[in-house]
What we know:
six-stranded mixed sheet; alpha+beta; 11 helices; elongated
Amino acid sequence: MKAQYAILRFAKYKGPEIGHIESHNERTKEKYASNPDVDTARSHLNFHLVTPQRKYRAEAEKQIAEAGCRTRSDSVRVVEALVTASPEFFKGKKKGEIKAYFQEALDFIREHQDPKTIISAVVHMDEKTPHMHLCFVPLTADKRLSAKEIVGNKKKLTQWQDRFWEHMVKKYPDLERGESAGETGRDHIPPRVFKEAVHLNRMKEQILKLMTDINLLNKKSKMEELEALLDKYVPATEALRTKLRKYDKAYKALSDENSALEAELQTAKDASKEKIADRLKYGKTEQELCELHALIDNIPPEIVAAYRRKTTGLQNER
């Protein structure tokens, strides 16, 4: 099964472009030549979780004025959050289930951004993959206009990604954290890999129990059950081992990098130390890899022998 990712992206808008995103989000155009994925025959399926009270730009200017903020022509007035998930996540889900996913995402954003600043949250069902456009005025808790403080740098964006996944995975445990290109394969082992390892470990316990329980009276039925389990367990274990090699390689590269960083940390000035220390984070990856290998390594020799007997018997029959 393909990985299913929880996806959250941000974009910042300053002036005239706010009207363009509004016409797209609110489907006020008659045609969408620039976006052929829009199927206007299905636009009636779109729905709001937060309905705009006025035009996006007008609402933004109103909130900014009420907060007493000064603006420049290049001030970011609207931040748009795009919320979605991998296409596989939505397969087979009814509209109510899809709505519940986006409502959960809206609840998350409301926890981290004043709900009053949210102008609109609309879910598009008329494109290939359901997604939500959520627009808000980037006002801080102390009433400053600062998109940079809310979503503006790499560290902040990483924190948003972490918190978003941590929130969504409580209700949707199969979801994995969305990854940036810089993170992929470096310090993130998907929960799905752990689930596979745990499942295989349970299967191993079943196999060992079956082998212990076989006797003259139940031999035929138990052997059939054992063979079915072996057919799944041995190939799946080898497949997971192959998958772990990728993470082993990524960990080695990360470990080598950290060795260099540790040396750099010794001579770094105070201003650089925090930045370097933030990159020293391979300990968790090492622990996770050790746990995974422990779950699937050391297949009991009796299981290997049983599987070899089975495969040898099948070859002799041909």
